[in-house]
Amino acid sequence: MNLTAKTRAGETxxxxxxxxxxxxxxxxxxxxxxxxxxxxINGPEFHAVLRSIKKGHLSTTIFxxxxxxxxxxxxxxxxxxxxxxxxxxxxxxxxxxxxxxVTLKVPIECEGASxxxxxxxxxxxxxxxxxxxxxxxxxxxxSQFTLGIHELKIRQSKRLSDIAMPKGIKPVATTDExxxxxxxx
Length: 185
Known about the structure:
Blueprint: E1 2-7, H1 13-21, E2 25-31, E3 34-41, H2 43-52, E4 62-67, E5 70-81, E6 88-95, E7 102-111, H3 117-120, E8 123-127, E9 131-136, E10 145-148, E11 157-159, E12 170-171, E13 178-184
Parallel strand pairs: 1-4, 2-6, 7-10
Antiparallel strand pairs: 1-3, 2-3, 4-5, 5-6, 7-9, 8-13, 9-12, 11-13
């Protein structure tokens, strides 16, 4: 996903408000060992990309920021919204370095609900954990983890340990926590 960025003239409230009035988004890009660089992201481009990303997958989306003729790969680490209008007012990016591990939240998708034995018998699926925090190299970032629930009966559950971890990905959380349970109605 490509985004156009440019260096911000300053960090005052007036400058940030002018950037927002122009339809752009003030942002900061952090790189390991360096202080954050203040930038401004093209607002219409970011909103178009945001509409094309599946719900919950922003944290695993790798962006290519074009800044002063240089292309930088980065992920969104933080997003701030206006309290009442829910407009995006600020973004935090983390620059990706091929040799430095990154920590991020990966969405967990449950599949097989339509074939689930427990749901067919009148139970309901309750997903308790929706994201798993992992550490991995940028080349190993998964888009999501898939957990099959079709064989679960009422009062049965699946844990984080039931998720197949690809090579190079290390979970930060303990793996004995329950992800999904088929509850009795």
